[in-house]
Design a protein that fits this description.
Blueprint lengths: L4 H6 L8 H11 L3 H10 L4 E5 L4 H6 L4 E4 L6 E6 L7
Antiparallel strand pairs: 1-3, 2-3
């Protein structure tokens, strides 16, 4: 992951990106469904908020352990996570 050039100039040495930040990026863009389930477990996630137009919504709503939560939002879907019921 590329770090802002201004930050590189102010900090000497290598800058490590926090694992949680990498997990968020990977969850939404670069992971298999199995890897996503591991990310939810590793970070002890209770809820996931996903843009309504994301292709992930349909895939995640069909999995055991992920339940839609009724919210007034028209732009996001909120899913409750029961880690003990997640596949894999």
């Amino acid at each position: 992951m590329r770090v802002l050039p201004e930050l590189e100039e102010r900090v000497s040495g290598r800058i490590e990106v926090p694992q949680g930040s990498l997990d968020v990026k990977n969850f939404f863009y670069d992971s298999t469904m199995e890897e996503r389930m591991e990310i939810l477990r590793r970070n002890e996630v209770d809820y996931v908020m996903i843009p309504e137009d994301s292709s992930l919504v349909d895939a995640l709503e069909r999995l055991p352990g992920l339940t839609p939560v009724d919210t007034p939002s028209e732009r996001y879907v909120l899913l409750g996570v029961d880690r003990s019921k997640l596949p894999g």
